[in-house]
C-alpha cells in the first residue's frame, strides 16, 4: 500500500478544494467516505453517481487548476481513467 494507507479522504478532498473545486453537499460526501472501507472506490462511485444525493463537483470560479487536480489524483493513487473522467465532468458542467 505504501504511503497511501496513511492518507485520508479528508486530505484528498481538501486537495481538490485547494485546486478550485467546489463540492456540493460536502457533508454527505464526507460521511459516506468515512463509512466506506475502500474510500477511493466510494469516491469514484459518488463522483459519477452522487447527483441523486446532491453531491456535485464544480469549478468554483472558472479557476480550477488542472495541475493541482492531477497532483491530488496521483498522490492518492487514483487511476488516470478516473482522473480524466472527473476532469471532463468539471468541464462539461460549464
Written account of the structure:
The chain has 94 residues and is mainly α. It has one domain. The chain is 57% helix and 9% strand. The chain has helices at 9-18, 26-35, 39-49, 66-75, 80-92, and strands at 21-24, 56-59. Strands 1-2 form a two-stranded antiparallel ribbon. Helix 1 (9-18) packs antiparallel against helix 4. The longest helix is centred in the C-terminal third of the chain and has 13 residues, at 80-92. The radius of gyration is 12 Å and the shape is globular. The N and C termini lie far apart (36 Å).
Topology, pairings included?
Elements: H1 9-18, E1 21-24, H2 26-35, H3 39-49, E2 56-59, H4 66-75, H5 80-92
Antiparallel strand pairs: 1-2
Helix pairs in contact: 1-4, 2-3
Overview features:
single chain; 94 residues; mainly alpha; 5 helices; disordered N terminus
Count of extended strands:
2
How many separate domains make up the residues? Answer: 1
Number of helical runs? 5
Shape annotation: globular
Helix-strand topology string? HEHHEHH
- Residues in β-strands, percent: 5-15%
Residue-averaged pLDDT, rounded?
A: 88
- Helix content range of the residues, please? 55-70%
What is the terminal separation in angstroms?
36 Å
Please summarize the sheet with the most strands: 2 strands, antiparallel
User: In angstroms, what is the radius of gyration?
Assistant: 12 Å
Residue windows where pLDDT falls under 50 for at least 5 positions: 1-6
- State the secondary-structure class: mainly alpha
What's the multimeric state? single chain
